[in-house]
Amino acid sequence: xxxxxxxxxxxxxxxxxxxCFAKADGQIVLDYLHSITYDKPVSIYASDAELRHxxxxxxxxxxxxxxxxxxxxxxxx
Length: 77
Known about the structure:
- Helices cover 74% and strands 0% of the residues.
- By secondary structure, it is mainly α.
């Protein structure tokens, strides 16, 4: 179930993510998260549960990157 947030709350989260990941340390963390999710090879023998787990991890990284982009765009306005 999706947590309902006001536009103002969402904007605060987006800006916070953008600030958190704006510096070099933030990029190091993002690069690491990308390497353990998107760059991680998946065995052809992986179970359905392993595949779903991997896709869930990728989705979290996608959400983080989306929040960063939206927050960065808002900070430019």
